[in-house]
Structure formats: C-alpha cells, structure tokens
C-alpha cells in the first residue's frame, strides 16, 4: 500500500522531464494519474501505458492547451469525473523565452504568463471546490529559483514565477481550514533532456568544453555545481502529499543547490 493509494492526481506538463517524474512517483505510491502535455502522440501513449504497466494504477492523458483557460478548467473537471475525485493537483507546465525587455516579443511575454501563471489559476479554481468538499487536497506548483531572485533577459518568466509564489500563499490561506495544503517547489537548474540539448550549441557559441558549459554557464549560480535531478523534485512532491507535511502550507521549498542562499 503506497502513501497515495486511493488518491487521484493531475500533473500538467507531464509528458517529459520534471512532470513525468512526478507523475511516475505518484503512481509508484498508488495514485491514479492524469498526465498532460505536448509531444509525439505515440511517445505520449507509450509513457501513459508504461505508468499503468509499471505501477498497476490507472493513467489517462489530457491534451488540454495550457494557453486556454476553458481547456484547463475542462481538463480538471474531466480528471475528477474520470476517477471520482481529484485529490492532488500539480501545476507544472511551463515555457521560457529569453530577450531584453525592449526586444521581448509581445506574444512570447503573454504566452509565458498564460502557461506559467494563468493556467495554474484556472486549474486551482476548478480543483479546489472538490478538495474543500472532501476535506483533503494537495496543490503543488512547480516554481523556480526565479520565484525568489531574478536574472536579466527573463522578465516574463521571472514575473510569472514570482506570481506563482503569491498565488501559492494566497490559496494556502484561503484553504487552511479545509484540509488542503498549497505549496510550491522551486528548483534551480534541473537535468532534463531540454537542458541537455542546450549544451552542444552553447559549446559551439562560447568555444567551451562540455564540462565548462555545465560548470561555468548552466551551474554558475548553483554553489554545489550539481544539477538537481527530476527524481529529487518528484520525491519532494510525494513528501508534500504525505501526513508528515500536513502542516506545511503556503511555502516555497527551494531545491537549487544553494542558489538563493547567496
């Protein structure tokens, strides 16, 4: 019996990377899971089927577009209808774009705010009535070190992640007496396929070795000089769903190798 047996979870942005690791960690603890995200349809189906086969739970896929509030709302309601309840919501979907503010494309700025912040609002708004009614719920927002500190050329992303911090605190206070906790996890650089793909281009552009790119560019802000792993983030998400964390709410848990300590 896992710690999440009989619970049902929804993880946005979970067809790869951090989100997929969280979905699989929940399934390993006995939860049924709805995954969501972009990618090749066959690859997504393979991951969905693997979750069911590996952990003996039910897993469904939603292709809801995080740019569209109505689709986000419908995704939550469909997940709740399919499994009978939605007990755990992880708002993980996110995108990034880097440019000076005077050159930042309007559509990119708005897309980042919609996917990284507004989608979380719509999902929480749809999920929380059921959680309050059942007197149990866990909402986890995947944030970032950039929820606590800034970097140049990332105005939209930093704004969205700072917004996630405020949203997390506010909903935690609103649901404090309803058995619902709301927290965010703020990773630094996490080793994912997306990050790995950036290395060859950076090596070429900066005339650096692979190790130099990792140590001096990607991990420049992390004192440990080590990447966070997706499994480390997933383990924190599982912990936040457990009884030991029931008094942890409205907080941001940093997992950034010391980045925000400086």
From TrEMBL:
It comes from the Bacteria. GO terms for molecular function: 3-hydroxybutyrate dehydrogenase activity. InterPro entries: 3-OHbutyrate_DH, NAD(P)-bd_dom_sf, Sc_DH/Rdtase_CS, SDR, SDR_fam. The keyword Oxidoreductase applies. Transmembrane segments: none annotated. Keywords: Oxidoreductase. GO terms for biological process: monocarboxylic acid metabolic process. This is 3-hydroxybutyrate dehydrogenase.
